[in-house]
Amino acid sequence: MGKLIINGGKRLQGELSLQGSKNAVLPVMAAAALCTGGNGSASSTGKITLTNCPVISDRFCAGRILSSLGARVTGSGNTCLIDPTYIDNSVIESSLMRSMRSSVIFMGALLGRTGHCTLCYPGGCDLGPRPIDMHLSSLRKMGAVIEDEHGKIECTAPKGLSGCRISLSFPSVGATENIMLAAATAQGETIISNAAREPEICCLADFLRLCGGRISGDGGGRIVISGVEKLTFPEEEEFSIIPDRIAATTYLSAVACTGGELLLTDCNPVHLEAVIPVFEQMGCYVRCFGSSIYIHRRERVKPAETIRTMVYPGFPTDTQAVVMSPLCTASGTTVFVENIFENRYRHTDALCRMGADIRAEGKVAVVTGVKELYGTTADAPDLRGGAAIVCAALGANGTSEIYRTEYIDRGYEDIDGNLRSLGADITRG
Ligand code: EPZ
Asked: What total of structural domains would you count in the chain?
């Protein structure tokens, strides 16, 4: 069990290139399982080249799933090479399924490629019950026969998958992705109404289109997919993963916690349009230009207007925890309303131990700013909660030890190295 040791109170300053998106690379890697490889000749290897991939544990878990299916996964650093030609297995062992939430979208890809798959319920951060009912009902509507026996899921598509109209009761990101993957090579047209609009959905659609998929409407609430015979990645191409908007918000929050200034490069500021106004309400100076975001925090943070988490393009639930950290020492009170997950205030215990005044009950958390926070010892409760505790510790008075860093490393590439490069006193224990 890893730990991070932080001696807080150091002002951050510098420039940082933003990592690729965890929530974009995972569905794209699942989509790779849909692709037929080359014809085996030297000139047509069917190899898929993904660039700007974050070096995070979830990416390597997705790589292990692909390898267990028979794909060849290589590459180093921010480049991932996948050869799907020899995929011949459609059973994902439970230890791999349980390692992250995103494993569930291999269901749509494997059904699309092989017509069957065996898996169990996915893992992922404990943010409350994380059902997959919308995934299962949508795939059943497309013709999949799915038996769910006490968590073990057997899927077959005896007559193949057929396109149909699917209206989601909630714009679920994962369910939208699963349907897109299953529909990409299904017979006929699939229309997803009330689809998720996140940038990660558009990234997946871009990848599928590059492979010959026929998809339109992504980014809006209505996605139309016309099934094609097969998907093949043009091996002379490279596909770049979009920047990680949640990691971007995390580094902006770190500066808002410590004071200082940061130039974040290789971002897409459009993806942060719901988040940047909150930093401006805090009194931070924020400017976006091209693919960079500049933030400067001079004085004590001010409170923000009520923050309600919504589906994209609203305020992201994934940024709720990290944005709460700087507001713990604001000169007033900020109210949070968490509308997406039932149990997403698990970071508040540690923040309160640091001296924060937070009253969380149900969907609502009331954060009354205090003068300063103090170092503590805490376990990261989940990925974004752990990042929030890191941000708070950076601005706190004294030393903090944060355990269960494996949660944080699931989604953040070299978080301690990045923060050290900005002047933070942070080391891995
Ligand atoms: C994705 O999770 C992200 N994960 C999450 O990011 C993110 O918080 C979430 O979308 C919302 O934006 C990845 O992309 C890997 P949902 P996902 O399906 O797909 C309910 C992070 O920190 N629901 O949009 O699991 C569900 O319980 C992670 O990077 C059903 O009821 O989210 C939740 O309340 C955390 N039935 C809501 O919908 C279903 O079949 C949103 O879930 C599916 C979902």
From this structure: 2
Q: How far is the CA of 173 from the centre of ligand 1 (A)?
A: 6
Residue to mutate (ligand 1; options 138, 167, 173, 201; most atoms within 8 A of CB): 173
Residues marked as catalytic: 125
- Residue linked to tokens 């903090």: 400
> Residue 187 maps to which CATH number?
3.65.10.10
How many angstroms separate the CA atoms of 320 and 48, rounded? 35
Domain span including residue 392: 3-15+244-428
Mark whether 56 and 79 lie in a shared domain. Answer: yes
Residue 73: beta bridge partners? 82
Q: Considering the entire predicted model, what is its pTM?
A: 0.96
- 174 within ligand 1 shell (Cβ under 6 A): yes
Count Cβ neighbours within 10 Å for each residue of 33-51 and write b for 16 or more, e otherwise. Answer: bbbbbbeeeeeebbbbbbe
Residue with the smallest CA separation from ligand 1 atom 31 is 131
Last residue of a domain, which of 240, 261, 276? Answer: 240
CB 54 near ligand 1, within 6 Å? no
Output the tens digit of pLDDT for each of the chain's 429 residues.
789 999 999 999 999 999 999 999 999 999 999 998 765 555 555 799 999 999 999 999 999 999 999 999 999 999 999 999 999 999 998 888 787 777 788 999 999 999 999 998 777 777 777 789 999 999 999 999 999 888 789 999 988 999 999 999 999 999 999 999 999 999 999 999 999 999 999 999 999 999 999 999 999 999 999 999 999 999 899 999 999 999 999 999 999 999 999 999 999 999 999 999 999 999 999 999 999 999 999 999 999 999 999 999 999 999 999 999 999 999 999 999 999 998 899 999 999 999 999 999 999 999 999 999 999 999 999 999 999 999 999 999 999 999 999 999 999 999 999 999 999 999 998
Task: Say how many Å lie between the CA of residue 19 and the centre of ligand 1.
Answer: 21
Q: Is the same domain home to 319 and 367?
A: yes
Q: Give the DSSP letter of residue 266.
A: S
415 bridge partner residues: none
Closest CA to 368 of 429, 301, 318: 301
Q: Are 247 and 275 in contact (CB under 8 A)?
A: no
